[in-house]
Q: What sequence folds into this?
């Protein structure tokens, strides 16, 4: 590893707000019932969208339930994968593991690969060297066409190297035993065989969905199983870009490189409460359902959350425009306005 100013940073010096230990311990308590109800409700919504698609077959109106299904698959799958990969969503470790694999298939990122890349994301948030934070959404200099196309169903056809289904390509390479840089750099060698085995399960399901579509001469298996991330990424990108876009890189302060926003009940539910993103990065051991309580406990030490997604994008859009010409530009955060 080469020595740079970035990898010589003292990663133990990340900013942490003051919080009473007893309060943090209470907020870190996990449960099984409330998360199970949450997951069951999402599953029912997806089932309802699927039923709507079957009822509207043969009509252009079928696109409505299909797009709803795809966005639920992409957003809720990715958000739930994030929570269970932390091991904090369910109290049961087995439940977290099972849903990590299910949602890993949904997002296109195999569970073990994601766990290591996400660990790196938390320890090196928005750091760009040795190792790179592979979860940075916007490369520098900013490619505005790629950014806007990320919201568009099938927009990745125009940018296949940056599309979300890039991860399905990555899984296929892993299934063939060809490990990609993210695994070679971040996952210990003892995890490599496990990643390859899980990737082969993913690819077997890809193949099965295609075979079923050919056998029944129907797009339904492919649309429901293989390509929801291709056409359903709009909501996921809408909230995903709000996390870090336009914020500072290569700083050890999550108040400067991450963003929280106030969300209504629908977005909060579908996003598994991850609108409290600064709070999550500061104390990732706190389950998603308790992040609002964490915000109440430490909010006076943080910048005010943005007012909804509109408030986020009022900040993001001018910042990305500036970053086209000046990649080092970042949203100014007033740490005194707390």
A:
């Amino acid at each position: 590893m080469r020595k740079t100013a970035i990898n010589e940073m003292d990663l133990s010096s990340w900013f942490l707000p003051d919080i009473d230990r007893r309060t943090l311990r209470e907020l870190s308590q996990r449960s099984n019932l409330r998360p199970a109800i949450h997951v069951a409700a999402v599953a029912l919504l997806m089932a309802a969208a699927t039923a709507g698609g079957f009822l509207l077959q043969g009509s252009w109106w079928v696109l409505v339930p299909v797009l709803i299904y795809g966005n639920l698959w992409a957003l809720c799958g990715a958000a739930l994968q994030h929570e269970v990969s932390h091991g904090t969503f369910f109290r049961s470790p087995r439940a977290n593991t099972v849903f990590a694999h299910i949602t890993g298939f949904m997002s296109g990122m195999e569970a073990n690969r994601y766990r290591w890349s996400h660990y790196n994301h938390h320890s090196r948030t928005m750091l760009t060297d040795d190792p790179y934070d592979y979860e940075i959404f916007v490369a520098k200099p900013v490619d505005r066409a790629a950014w806007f196309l990320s919201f568009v169903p099938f927009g990745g056809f125009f940018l296949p190297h940056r599309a979300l289904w890039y991860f399905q390509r990555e899984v296929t390479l892993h299934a063939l035993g060809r490990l990609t840089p993210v695994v070679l750099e971040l996952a210990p060698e003892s995890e490599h065989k496990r990643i390859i085995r899980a990737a082969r399960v993913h690819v077997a399901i890809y193949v099965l969905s295609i075979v079923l579509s050919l056998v029944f001469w129907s797009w339904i298996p492919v649309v429901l199983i293989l390509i929801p991330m291709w056409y359903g990424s709009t909501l996921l990108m809408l909230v995903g870009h709000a996390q870090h876009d336009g914020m500072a890189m290569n700083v050890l302060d999550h108040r400067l490189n991450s963003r929280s926003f106030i969300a209504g009940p629908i977005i909060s539910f579908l996003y598994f409460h991850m609108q409290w993103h600064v709070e999550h990065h500061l104390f990732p051991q706190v389950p998603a359902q308790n992040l609002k309580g964490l915000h109440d406990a430490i909010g006076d030490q943080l910048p005010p959350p943005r007012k909804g997604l509109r408030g986020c994008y009022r900040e993001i859009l001018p910042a990305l425009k500036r970053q086209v010409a000046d990649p080092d530009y970042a949203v100014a955060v007033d740490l005194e306005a707390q």
Remarks:
- The two ends are 39 Å apart (CA to CA).
- The chain has one domain: 30-325.
- Residues 1-6 have pLDDT under 50 and may be disordered.
- The CA atoms of residues 170 and 180 lie 7 Å apart.
